[in-house]
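Example record

One chain of 420 residues, shown exactly as stored in the release files.
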Amino acid sequence: MSSDSDSSSRGGADHRSFGEITRDLVEDLYKRRQPLPSLDAIYFIQPTQENVHIFMSDMSGKHPLYKKAYIFFSSPVQKELVDQIKHNSRVLTRVGALSEMNLEYFAIDSQGFVTDHDKALEELFTESVEGSMKYNSCINTMASRIATVFASMRIAPIIHEWTYDAMCHDLLCMDGNKYVQEVPSKNGSATEKKEVLLEDHDPLWLELQHVHVADANLRLHEKMTNFISKNKAAQLHQARFGQQTRGGELSTKELQKTVQALPQYSDQIGKLSLHVEIADKLFEIIKQQNLKDVGQLEQDLVFGDAGTKELIDFFRTRRDISRENKLRLLMVYAAINPEKIQSDKGGKLMQLAGLSAEDMIAVKNMRCLCAHDTKKSSTGGFTMKFELQKAWYQKRTNRGRLNVDVIPVLSHPGGVDRET
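Predicted structure tokens for this chain:
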């Protein structure tokens, strides 16, 4: 389908882009297709009996539709379906690869996805539908599709994500998007608890949500400094409390008092005060839990810069690491080294980390998210493993990776304090 020199020189209609040609070559499995015996084909299909039957029909007999087939299932495939392919020697010799891609969802943007189940509301919430065959089928389908999201991400839900949004949900024990803020009472003698929602109506949340927590911290500094520098009333209030605060900067509590003292700016300072408080809490927890070191080891394990020896050394020397973070480290290790976690090394690591047998069930279950064996089989068929995980994390480096040796803390807008 590529254009030759004559048609190109004439500027003919056959001169098309690669994207146009690719679109023309994407065909529907259920429609009659033109045989292309000199070309290889990629099958991206759901693992159903019907689809496998169509594939077998395409590739069996003396005259298959394509020269070779590379099969990628959109979700985990049953062993019985794979056996049907393996037991047909003629089809098997024409299989170039067979793999589970775990991609039964659509990415709508860089942060969201849908499972394309537009009848879910009807099938799940119709009167008296619960427990019906349609209800159970819908639940199972949705669960399977959501499972492919986690399977394709592999260890992403376990590893610490360093964006502002992720840190809030990971470290602050929030109920959904609900955060409980402590604010001064009206009489000023005590504090009161106030529930706030971190959602799209909050412009600061929208701005900081997907930013690295350290960058979010610096932006809050700049906003606080700019507001004070442009507002004389805020400067007077700062001067009044300046001697009580470090470096003359307003603390979280003083910012909250400023909201009361300057009611005309209550919304603007209130949002700033909220996020300054959140940032303070995040960095305090990061420091208390030694998450800088934990996060660094997590990423070293993912990128292959650390292995069993480094994990053992970490468990032996860092007795201050919480059970949860030890569990997360072992789950990352298990996802990357499933064969090792099943051996005696797994038991020794569990004992060294002080984890329970119940914890190790979760660790060993990580093998379910790992790619299958990539060794070539004696029958000529083989599996294909995509090494996308490292590249995926590298793409996220600028947005969510803890890639600095220091963590800025919210103390001085003029210069960033650094915790080593």
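Notes: The chain is about 50% helix and 10% strand.
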